[in-house]
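One record is given unchanged without comment:
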Amino acid sequence: MADLPRVLIVDDSRMVRMTLIKNLKGHYEVREECDGEAAWQTLVLDQSLCAVISDLNMPKMDGYALLEKLRTSKLRRLQKIPFILVSGEEGEDERERARALGVSDFVGKGSGSSELLARLDTLLALSSARDNIEAGREAMVQDPSSGLFSRKYLELQAAQALSHGARYELEVSIMVLGFDAFEEVTLKLGTELAEQVSARFGKMLAGKLRQEDSLGHYGAGQYAIVAPGTSPILCAAFAERVREAVEVAHVAVQGRKLSLTVSIGVASIPGDAANSAIALLDLAVQRMGEAMQAGGNRVISGGSADSPVRNMKLQHALELITARREDVVLPHLDELGMKILPLLRLMSQELGLDLPMADIERRLHDRAALKK
């Protein structure tokens, strides 16, 4: 039994569960739950389950809700797990709703073992074929959909860059970028649209790199750049420009405006204590994670996060205001105001505005003092 594929049966009727278990006996190992909420918890924790057979009408969480929760899960294995709905007297509207949510197949409550086994075997064969294709894509040099390097190949490029750098005493920097709260973006847009937004970002990055740099996918909503011959200072400066560009970008999907930010981790050789390409990549990923945990929308280089309230350039502030991101500008209002005081004085003098300059300067100083 331990070698048989494992499926989850979800139904509030003990009799129905026993009938389904009898039909699958000898072909599948079965785990059972009596409601959608318990099934969800089981599916999250038990990674050995390869398919779900579920009733539609159940207490706590019905079949629709369970299916939707799986298809919008952060876990890719749950997004793709075969889901068979046991249908009774449902009409075409109910079936259409299940199809829209991503159901894999339907079986009638009175179906015999041969039909259930045939449908389940077919779905698992398709799932296995899909997994093999995805595994093949991981081994490819480039992702066919985006043209960017795959993660595995990027690791090889990093190893080659480190070897070349050690031979000729050159610096090598790696930066890993990730969208902040990408899981929430995925839940809001769905996996396909979220990946499209991420792909647009990847293309933007590709257009800003040198020929000797390597850009590739690292994870969902994440990218890594290997930059041979680049110091950590220059790499961090480039990372900051990318962060600012994303912060002011106008991103709209199906008429909905998205406010996106990225967190970026930078690691370099010989400055950082990493003895391999994988270790250097892992360090950059760790720093990206620290940036996200510190609130996101920041760059971490050399192991310490930049200040939550960074110095902001006036031009960037104007770009943010144009992009209707005034909330990002407000924490910097005092420092920006002090920068433009000479301009305000000149405008007041030349245009005869009689601006209360002393009051403006005092209020800016008071605002700055409150932050200390």
Observations:
- The chain is about 50% helix and 20% strand.
- The domain at 142-308 is CATH 3.30.70.270 (Alpha-Beta Plaits).
